[in-house]
């Protein structure tokens, strides 16, 4: 209740004095905010032997100017404040404002400070501290002219001295005051300043990366949409040479979500060609590539959401040995493709790209495919169901007349390793990422049509980055890059309507049969009929050539 009787600007500050000797018998009400009247009467009637011979009396700061300290000695006068400091001998910062008041208004050079510390733990132990303060430079002006001396107050304790206002010429320079400012509702409250943007290294890196990209928008391409790139979730199937370079290019464009899928471990030949790995990753049998690549990316850019999954992608032509494990990998891959926006096919073998192509086609995802030869590379985007049928672009398997099979079965050890010129992978990876960014900037996104064959340089009028080709084939030996456009094939073993429908209807059962049963995919996709038609044509051609030979022989 005492708090509500005091001006709010004085909350947390108060005066206290000790009343000793015969003053205890006078009619002075001595109390603290925690005392109750019954308790005070009890203490008078039943005073223990260890009770001190003084009582405390407190008052608001304003009572100093009405003679609160006039009837006690200087050693029993305390100017107090509620101290939040937890240091044993260091008071809180609000003492500075109190000292300014004491010196500038009350003109005191010496005083006794009580740092009142009320804690909820071990309340029986003293926590408050008391110390004396003396001004190094005495206050200017007539000290006694402002307030009556203590001795004068002792002679006439009932008097209420009135302070004289101090002329500006006697006040001296006013120090800067520290305290709470009024908020928008005119309430005294603390102001919080978030310095994280200026001191947190991670946030500084975020600002620097974003600034580099914003310069593209401010200076080169005002219509570019950087947010859609930043929000695109990318799934990289393959964490090897292509995966390493693709991921670095993606974070350079501001992509914040990258997921790796790979079942291999880092070998001694990898670090020199795959920049996300080091020699230490090869030790003790090698670290898992997917997880190690994700960790390496997070060291490069801590704000990146990078994860790795050690999954074996079920491959056409590779019979299932452990159906339970393969089914788990199938379900996990299916979920990952559903959770991401863009899928990069960066694996070593052709057959490992078949199932992700089918899954992504069914889900309508953006698919970017990159593959390497010795001195050549190929980068392409797959068509999506939302494209008009006459403009639907083909996939990686649309040019094949046979279904994917085990390409490693009869290969020798040296043929199982990817042998390529060192510069092919960075070039293919960079173009794969640039192709994705161009797709995202096109008004039709994944359904963007490829430039016509008769005008491969054609550009969309509203595209900030130029054209969006279908396929790029690079040849290092001749330093050429060809832009090719290929239509979707109705009998494709991966993206044809028949295959996609079977996958949507049967799911795992279709995939299991396609992997285990030789010739099944060719049969259901229509490739078997195409092959039979070609064989029949060859037979007809051979028979026709045989008849012509017979006729020539008869003429001779």
From TrEMBL:
Cellular compartments annotated: Preautophagosomal structure
Recorded GO CC terms: phagophore assembly site
Sequence ranges assigned to domain Ubiquitin-like modifier-activating enzyme Atg7 N-terminal in this UniProt record: 1-199
Ranges of biased composition (kind: Low complexity): 156-169
Residues of the THIF-type NAD/FAD binding fold domain: 219-447
Chain intervals for the UniProt region annotation (Disordered): 27-47, 139-187, 446-467
Record protein name field: Ubiquitin-like modifier-activating enzyme ATG7
GO molecular function, one term: Atg8 activating enzyme activity
Keywords, alphabetical: Autophagy, Protein transport, Transport
SUPFAM superfamilies: Activating enzymes of the ubiquitin-like proteins
Similarity annotation: Belongs to the ATG7 family.
One GO process term, biological-process aspect: autophagosome assembly
Record CDD domains: Apg7 (cd01486)
Source species of the chain: Aureobasidium pullulans
